[in-house]
Design goal:
The protein is mainly alpha-helical. It has helices spanning 3-12, 27-33, 35-51, 53-89, 91-113, 121-124, 131-155, 157-177, 209-242, 249-258, 261-278, 280-283, 288-293, 317-322, 357-393, 395-409, 413-426, 438-465, 468-475, 480-517, 528-535, 545-572, 574-579; strands spanning 13-15, 21-23, 193-194, 200-201, 301-306, 311-316, 338-339, 345-346. The chain is globular. One of its GO terms (cellular component) is plasma membrane.
Length: 587
Amino acid sequence: MSNTESEQSMTDTAVRTDGGTETKQSLRQRVLSNPEPAAIWLAGLALLVAVELGRFVDWALTIGGGIKFILDGIVATPTWVGSNFEGTLGFVAGAVASDITSLLLLFIVAVFLRAYLPFHPDEKLGLDLSRSRHLWFERGFVTAVLAAVVSVLVFTPIGAALKNEVGFYVGILDSLADTQTLLSRETIPNHGYQTASGSWEGTFLGLSARSAWLVRFTMVWVYAAVVMSWLWRGYNVYREHYRRMDWTPRDDVIDRLRSHNWGRFGLVVVIGFIVLALFAPVIATYPIQENVYEPYSQDSEFKYFNEEAGEVQTALHGDANINSRSQGAGSQNVGINQYDDYGRYAPLGTTTSGEDLMTHIAYGAQTSLSIGLIALFLALGIAMLLSLASAYYGGIIDLMAIIGTDTIISIPIFVLVLMMSVVFQQGDVWIAEPMDGGLLLALIFAFAYMPGMWRSIRGPSLQVAEEEWVDAAKSYGQTPLAIMRKHMAPYVMSYLIIYGSLLVGGMIIVTSALSFLGYGVSEPTPEWGRLIASGRNAVSTQSWHVSTVSGAMIAIVVTGFNALGDGIRDAIDPQAEANAGGSGGGA
């Protein structure tokens, strides 16, 4: 190595006090200096996405639809406020209230966008402002810019043209979402019919409906295993070749979690639950639209072999469901791993309505996962903001947070959720429509569980607010929002991760309990608790599978989330396991 290269290497790498090394190169420089591992890993990503491109596009459109729903609700808020004022105080008051609400919403957005301004408008105008006035001026400037943009989009043809342009690209994505993928039921169909000779028509490679479904079911889990291996390989590639430091505390956390038997069990269960939810359209034995939502539509017609007539006939899923109900013994039951009289294979049997139970279980997992994730992220975000603000400012803000959260905590979780669910559903509020009450439950869960999360991180937030680096950031003139985001939030995030992972199981239990009582997710959206309620009278008969399978799924998934939460807690804070006598699981 030449002297120049040696000097460059010494400048690019620093020796830490713990004996490790830390490179000063950017991530881009590190990748360019050794591109082969990253290229191989990205090639694997391209292959995994290519074989399931339509599914990934469909997921993206689903997320985009959720974001659009939220934005539509926010956009409609000023109109709603204005209409209320107009009804009591007149047209002028309604218009003023609507405009003020719009400006307040834009100002909230401006608070977060201000940090991304490419220049300081007060300096451009030659203004000499104090620090606080400088912040308010920039926020007001961004608010004015946003108001001007919104006005142009609303009151000129530009908004309509932009909407049409977005609709054009969304249409292209819709077309991509409908393309056939490796795991789609078009590639591996299982819904066919037998002929008089006993052979199968319309199924994958002429296999029986049972074998064809098992092939697709197995392929889903093989694909999921390959994706998990690819993710783990990506972490190791980054750790070995591109990470700035050759060791971080996160390495010890992952190593402890890998050796935590109880935590590993929970991780496997949670991953399986997520795969079941994400790939519900593939794992489901029949399309949910035909079998559950619209069983009497023209698209729900299918062919089957009528043994009495000795010929192939057609039927609707709705009529077939009526004759395939699991409501007791004998002919009133289609049990686990059986066919009904229409040649439809039911891996887990049928429900009391004759619908495929596997389809309900798969889409019920999707319902539970959606509710849990929405509630969890909302509760985590609100609890984080509230804890950081109350710890940073203290005083009246902290006192108000304590009073408000104590008021909510004083009501038992189940009673609070049940009460709010009944009030909103009977009030016929628009928020109760998506997912047949699922979105409403998610918002109620976020409200009910947020105080507990805030309590769990209030102590660490108060502790970090008194640290020297926070005082140093204040002395350097950093804004409170920047201090909370950069210097306080990373410290308390681990506590939120631990607490949040332990709460998802509770949300699934409460959702199922409410649906069991008839106050949760209503028909026709599949939900596990409602399955238990529908089959509870047949537990002692041959139709035991309706309630038992659903109850077993709830028990396994809730146990898995609790186990994963214990594993994460012991991995992040090993002292907690030592204090508890190692009861959290094998390490």
